[in-house]
Amino acid sequence: MLTKGVSIESVSRILGHTDIKTTQIYAKILNEKVDKEFAAVKDQLNNMKTCYKLSSRI
Fold it and tell me: What's the whole-model pTM score?
């Protein structure tokens, strides 16, 4: 579920854990998820950079 974008808080609640630390013990954050998140941030920053360059030309 984590790799599909569901937050750890939601997973914790779905599993009935009263403490998120319990979920964190069992949750394995895959490199794929981390790579996707960094790529998304990089894309967003690149888009902002492009927009800034375009707006400064106007």
Answer: 0.48
